[in-house]
Design goal:
- Helix 2 packs antiparallel against helix 3 (148-171).
- It is built from 3 helices and 11 strands.
- It is elongated, with a radius of gyration of 20 Å.
- Strand 2 and strand 3 form a beta hairpin.
- By secondary structure, the protein is of the alpha+beta class.
- The chain is 36% helix and 30% strand.
- The protein has 2 domains: 6-115 and 174-182, Roll (PH-domain like), CATH 2.30.29; 118-168.
Length: 192
Amino acid sequence: MSDDLTYSYKAALFSAPWEFQLKEEGLEWHAGRHSGLLRYDHIRCVRLSFRPVTLQSHRFLAEIWSEGVPKILIASTTWRSIIEQKRQDEGYAAFIIELHRRIAVAGVPAQFLIGMPGIVYWLGLAVFVAVGLGLAALTVRALQVEEWAGAAFVGGFFALFVWQLGGYFRRNRPETYRPDKLPASLLPRAKT
C-alpha cells in the first residue's frame, strides 16, 4: 500500500463527503469545513459492525474514538442519488485493513471491538427471540385452525424476519479482536 491510501464516502445525500487519508503520522480526515489529523498512537478504540440501512442491506461501519477528536465514522457505502447507495467493498476493506496495520505498528493500547455495545445487543436479541417465538406460535395456531393463507403469510414473514435479523445479530455479537486478525464477517468481500 502507498503511504497515502485514501477513502471517501457520503454519509447523506446532501452532505459533504467524508474524505480520509492514511498518512505516515496519522489518519487525516476532512468533512466539509471540518478536518483534522488523528495520530495512530492517540486512537483509544475501534469498533467494527454490520449496519444495514433501508436502501442498502450490505453496509459495514468502522467507528474510531480518540481523545480530543469527535468520533469518526467510516462506512462501506456512499450515497449516489436519492434512492441509491453504492457499495465500496474493495476500497473500504483495503482502507480498514491498512488502518489496523498502522495502528498495530504504532503499538497503541487501544480496544478493538466487534458489533454493538453489550447491553444494547442482549436487549435487542431478547426482543428478537420473543418476537420470533410469537410469530412461530401464530403460524402453528393458524395451521391448527386450518387458516392456510394466514399460516403462509405469517410463516413467510417469520422466515424473512429470522433471515434478516438473524444475520444482523450473528455479525454484531459483542466481542473483541486483535488488529492483526480482523473479523472476516465484518469486512465486505471483494467481488470475484
